[in-house]
Amino acid sequence: MPVLDYKAEKIAEQYSKSDSLTEADYYKLTDTEVNIVGGIFSLFRDSQDERDRRFAYFDDRTLIEYIDDSVKRFVTNVYKRDDLEEWQAKVHQPFTRNKVLAILGKVIDALPVAEFFGRGDEDILKVEILNTLFEYSDKVDNVDEFFVYALEEALVKGTMVGYEGIETKSKKVRDITKYKDGDDISVKENDYKIRRLRSYIVKLEEFYPCSVGIRDMRDMPYCFLRQEIPYSQFQHDWNNFDKAKYVKPFNSATQGEDVQRPFYLDYVTPSTQEGNVEIIRYYNQDTDEYIIIANGIWLNPIGDEKVSPLPFNHKRLPFWVIRYDIFGSDFFYGKSMPDKLSSLQDVLDVLQNMLLDQSFLSIFKPILMAGVDDVEDDFLRPGRRISLDTQGIPINQAVQVLDLGTPSGWHQFILEYTKKVLEESSVDSVSQGVVGTGSDRTTATEVRTAAAGVSALLGLFARFIRFGVKGRAELRARNILQFYTDPTTPILDGVLGEGGSKKFNKAFNVFRVDSSALTPGDRGTKIIEIFQNMEDMPTKKKIAIDTRLSELTSGKKITKIAVLPEYIRDFDFDIDIVANPHSEMSKEVDRALEIQFQQTMNTLYPDLIDRKELAAVLIQKFGRQPSKILNEQAFAAPMMPEGTPAGNMMPGPGGDNSANTVKGATGVGGEGVQMRDMMR
Description:
By secondary structure, the chain is α+β, with helices and mostly antiparallel strands. Helices cover 37% and strands 17% of the residues. It is built from 19 helices and 17 strands. The protein has helices at 9-16, 31-51, 63-75, 95-109, 124-140, 143-157, 231-237, 337-340, 342-363, 395-398, 409-425, 444-483, 500-504, 540-554, 565-569, 584-604, 611-621, 626-629, 670-678, and strands spanning 113-118, 159-179, 185-202, 207-209, 222-230, 276-284, 289-294, 297-298, 319-323, 325-326, 334-335, 367-369, 399-401, 509-514, 525-530, 558-563, 573-578. Strands 4-5-6-7-8 form a five-stranded antiparallel beta sheet. β7 and β8 (297-298) form a beta hairpin. α4 packs antiparallel against α6 (143-157) and α16 (584-604) packs antiparallel against α17 (611-621). The longest helix is centred in the last third of the chain and has 40 residues, at 444-483.
């Protein structure tokens, strides 16, 4: 039972005495279910009432109104005003959208990644395994694309809430066993299970913190997710719960006096649309509770109506947060970039449309008439004859054209001034790192200005990104240690499939990853096999033979690691945030810095360095395989004239730092290093 003390005996008695309701019509709640459902819904309404208040931080708007306004400012192409005439301009300058995308492109290219190291454990093999498995899970989950939309969400709405969990799906597939031609096909139907660790973006409108005054997700005792979906979608997505069959679509109307009022009306938000299902998920890390309610039905009781614990061994709320800007230390939500630029964006739109209106009026000038006949708006049609009774007044005195004048230089100055203020409020072309656009080369002053501008204006956002990346990595790593080492839920279903797959390998999980700078150990391909029992594990000799055969077949360096689940399941770790070695900016910067480093080492310590290792490192940074390029005989020690001091050796080509020449918009040099270091 949860710690909720909700008294619902009267409601339970009301529905237990009802003879008009059957399981075929409406599910009859037990006393325990009434207590759970009523208590959770009451607690949810408290969080909902607090979250949906109007806040001074939002300029006396609700969260939903704040999000709607920010999203519209990002996506709109039309300047809207109620009192506009048909002839007036309705141009919206997409300044806000362009700036959001400019910042998004910069931070994505410098997005950091997590690196794990042991806490009080000298076994570096565990660190190597965890880093490898984390890199594998991110590749399967396509994390690069995910972070593009996650950071866009943070910029546009001010706050991005991410969920970290496991996804399990079952579906039937029909494998073709014989194919001849046309419809001469034989198939075999099999059950196929999909399991993967998954990160997804929670709609900010659907997330309800227990209190908006709690800033840090780790300090939040509980929270809710509320989702409203059509009944047909509910039947498809939630059919893995046995009690989902009792859930009925929302219907606020009752037909006739003899019909019993549906019980779920007391446990559904009144704003729910007809025919939909409201799903409320309750997470509590203080009491270790996880409850799902769908239109008043408790979907996930375990055993004899017991409350389910959180499905993760880390026993934390499975959510993490990235904010763009801050309101205050006592507020959960962050400030969005469209809201930050809103007032100046409105001024820019008004000024621009006023200039266009004045230009239009200077071409089609208004006319004052002294006669009794009105001149129509379309009097300038070719060949048009207009008769006008001037009452004896000369025509040149009866008609006067109003000359409103064309927009002056002052108007243009005001428009440019507003744009400048907007630039300084966000990121201008130089500060956002777009330098050297007019030529192939960029001055050092421009680079320093770009780097300083990016650091000053994006520094806070970069910090929040680091916090979010670290929070996500910690949750995902804990899930890796839980689910990747659980033999009852293999990630790769084929390993425990029928027939040959099961006999071929007794490991219940096998992971194959091409190692990078974040996966310690030898370069090449790493294969990690997790076995359930010690007797199933291969011997060291067999691993060595299989590894050598794989190397001869693939032509790559292969490393095989066979472990038991207990070896890494209770591994305690720390996290460091480092530059992403896979990003284009990091690759270019690393290449330039590596060349400079090797030139310096060859100049200062030519007799102490391992030239083969330096060559292998540089070749790998250019995406090539050292084993296919290096000539073993080429690494004989170079002959040096006697008496030649090492310090007198001249650097080779590029030793004057020419390898680090800053080129426009490449990210190589000071700007790239500054952006990468800002994310670290």
